[in-house]
Amino acid sequence: MRGKRIGSGAALLAGALAVTGLAFAPSAAAVTPTTATTTANCGLFGGGAATLTATQSGTAATLTLSSTAITAPIPIGANSITSTLTMANSTGAARVFSGTVNPAMPTGAPIVVGPLNGTVAAGDSLDFYKGSLKMVVFGITVTCTASGPQLPGPFVF
């Protein structure tokens, strides 16, 4: 009988410790907002409204930029655009996101690049305004900049 009481007491203690551990576990990092809009100017390649989407997992983050106003001038194969997205950081050094991820796009299709990978620190406040997107397509470099701050505001990590 005594063995059962010790076993039951140990189980209750283990359960209580598990619940306490969950209560004090650090919360997962999350970027806010997860989506922002801006007006991008890509020179001769066009410009207009663009949407940025951010995700975060610890210090790893991704950004995707899409725009129906900036379109593919010719058919572009999947994963054939080399992109470097530099985001201004109001709390320190600019953050760079890069990669060669893009869907296949026929002529006239909206431009989509990403998710582009980068590293962030807690408290980073990133805005495309005063940053840039450089895309290399078939050896041609296209640079896009923003005409104003993104809305509803910067990405805070």
Structural class: mainly beta
Number of helices: 1
Helix content: 10-25%
User: In the CATH scheme, what's the topology name?
Assistant: Immunoglobulin-like
Keywords: Signal
Organism: Streptomyces humidus
Signal peptide: 1-25
Protein name: Secreted protein
What layout of secondary structure does this protein have?
Blueprint (H helix, E strand, L loop, with lengths): L1 H23 L10 E7 L5 E11 L2 E12 L10 E8 L5 E5 L10 E10 L5 E13 L2 E7 L8 E2 L1
Antiparallel strand pairs: 1-2, 1-8, 2-3, 3-6, 4-5, 4-7, 7-8, 7-9
Give me a quick take on this structure.
It comes from Streptomyces humidus. The protein has 157 residues and is mainly beta.
Descriptive keywords:
48% strand; 1 helix; Secreted protein; Immunoglobulin-like; nine-stranded antiparallel β-sheet; signal; 157 residues; mainly beta
Overall description:
This protein has 157 residues and is mainly beta. It has a single domain, classed as Immunoglobulin-like (Sandwich), CATH 2.60.40. Helices cover 15% and strands 48% of the residues. The chain is built from 1 helix and 9 strands; from the N terminus they run αβββββββββ. The protein has one helix at 2-24; strands at residues 35-41, 47-57, 60-71, 82-89, 95-99, 110-119, 125-137, 140-146, 155-156. Strands 1, 2, 3, 4, 5, 6, 7, 8 and 9 form a 9-stranded antiparallel beta sheet that branches. The longest helix is centred in the N-terminal third of the chain and has 23 residues, at 2-24. The radius of gyration is 22 Å and the shape is globular.
